[in-house]
Backbone:
């Protein structure tokens, strides 16, 4: 089993972008909602991760705006790249394997 390569926060960001292009605040809100408030990224954590993800080619900043007439021009929108989707899918497979191992040893409940 290969070591995990994505941090928890990075993985959450990629998951938030998996089905929808989003701006920074929307990413933070999506993560907060998906985790029932258990993971709340600060703006500095988010934008540090976004900068790194852009540099690594896992996400891209969009040139177009979804609805310019009803949008704040200061917002930057992001999209998952093919490489980002593949990295997130691999991480998800690793997490699934780890959870299966935990279930088989009694550390996590079996599926119902």
Residues:
């Amino acid at each position: 089993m290969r070591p995990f390569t994505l941090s928890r926060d990075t993985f959450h960001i990629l998951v938030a972008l998996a089905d929808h292009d989003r701006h920074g605040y929307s990413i933070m809100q999506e993560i907060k909602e998906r985790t029932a408030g258990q993971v709340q990224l600060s703006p500095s954590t988010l934008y540090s991760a976004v900068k790194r993800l852009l540099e690594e080619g896992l996400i891209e900043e969009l040139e177009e705006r979804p609805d310019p007439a009803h949008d704040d021009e200061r917002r930057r929108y992001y999209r998952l790249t093919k490489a980002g989707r593949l990295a997130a899918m691999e991480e998800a497979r690793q997490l699934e394997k780890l959870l299966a191992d935990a279930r088989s040893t009694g550390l996590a409940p079996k599926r119902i």
Q: What stands out?
A: The helical segments are 8-17, 24-34, 43-56, 82-104. Residues 45 and 111 are 34 Å apart (CA to CA). The mean pLDDT is 91.
